[in-house]
Amino acid sequence: MALNLALTIIIPLYNEEESLVKLGAEMDAFLNQLQPDCGRVLFVNDGSSDGSLKIIEDICRQDERYAFISLDRNHGLSTAIKAGIDHCRTPLVGYIDADMQTIPADFGKFLQFLPEYDMVNGIRAKRQDSIIKKISSKIANSLRRLLINDRIVDTCCPLKIIKLEYAQKIPFFTGMHRFLPALVQLQHGRVKQVPVSHFPRFAGTAKYNLWNRLLGPFFDLLAFIWMRRRYINYRISQQSK
After folding, report:
1. Which of 85, 127, 142, 229 shows the smallest number of beta carbons within 10 Å?
2. Number of helices and strands (H, E) in the chain?
3. Quick one: which of 14, 17, 18 has its CA closest to 45?
4. 30-79, pLDDT tens digit by residue?
């Protein structure tokens, strides 16, 4: 297992004050399983207007394994993830949502597949969501696989680990967080999919509606198809000494 590989877990958040204390406790339990100095957490506050910033400031003040950055306003999930990646300095970067529908403990299932794979992506095997959210997600995933054939079962599962060298080369645009596995594959990276636990939302409200669950992702899919046809990817086979 890759317990000796340094990992930074990015936690984007927007108005998640009800979940952060519980998330911090469960993240502590996971970090304590790693070798000393191998686990870090980076909160990315995406312009929260509630008490989220104060809570993550307190967490970071009490434990040096935690740090945060706070964006000037609410930019959206793609920007928050990119900001986290831009500030990551470890060989591996993970990602988890702050709503506690997925749990830090499941990162332990991913580590055995590193460094053999370049990304490990979760599959929410038994989703605890509304019927509307399940149906819209199934339609979006099926359409994506049909059009780009990425073979990814659950591209938006908010539990991932990526090698930093691949994460930093991802061309980010608004909505591109929906295609992280495909964007790693675009670099000829290998993606492993692993079933993870899924729970009802612990607190707060979802930040998504029909537009950004179905219609928005469709237009993002068209943008990804356009970008993939024009993506520049090369390897140097030889150079002067």
Report:
1. 229
2. 9, 7
3. 14
4. 999 998 889 999 999 999 999 999 999 999 999 999 999 999 999 999 99
Could you give the 3-state DSSP secondary structure of residue 5?
Answer: coil
Total domains present in the chain: 1
Closest CA to 79 of 56, 49, 45: 45
* Six token digits for residue 94: 């993970």
Query: How confident is the model over 152-179, as a mean pLDDT?
Result: 92
Q: Could you tell me if residue 101 is inside a domain? A: yes
Residue type for position 79: T
Q: Which residue has the higher pLDDT, 202 or 60?
A: 60
Half-sphere exposure of 207 (CA within 13 A, CB side): 14
- pLDDT computed for residue 190 by the predictor: 97
Residue 173 maps to which CATH number?
3.90.550.10
Q: Measured between alpha carbons, how far is 161 from 147 in angstroms, rounded to an integer?
A: 25
CA 198 to each of CA 3, 18, 34, 105, 122: distance values in angstroms, whole numbers, following the listed order? 24, 18, 23, 12, 10
Residue 206 has pLDDT above 70, yes or no: no
Q: For residues 133 and 127, give the distance between their C-alpha atoms in angstroms, rounded to a whole number.
A: 10
Q: What is the pLDDT of residue 1?
A: 44
Task: Let me know if residue 213 belongs to a domain.
Answer: yes
- 239 within domain boundaries: no
pTM: 0.86
For residues 26 and 104, what is the distance between their CA atoms, to the nearest angstrom?
6
Residues spanned by the domain of 206: 7-230
Q: How far is CA 238 from the centre of its chain?
A: 35
Instruction: For residue 164, tell me if it sits in a domain.
Output: yes
